[in-house]
Amino acid sequence: MGVIVPITEKVDENRLDPIIRMVASDMKRANEIILSRTGSDVAMIPEVANHLISSGGKRLRPMLTLATANLCSVKGEGYIKLAAAVEFMHTATLLHDDVVDGSEMRRGKLAARMLWGNEASVLVGDFLLGQSFKMMVEVGSLACLDILSTAATIIAEGEVMQLSAAKNTTTSEDDYLSVIRAKTAALFAAACEVGPILGERSKPEIAACRSYGMNLGIAFQLMDDALDYGGASVKLGKNTGDDFREGKITLPVILSFRRGTEQERSFWQRCLEKGDIQPCDLETAIATMRRHKALEATVERAKHYGAMACDALALFPDSEQKSALLDVVEFCISRVH
Question: Is 3 within the bounds of a domain?
Answer without folding.
Answer: no
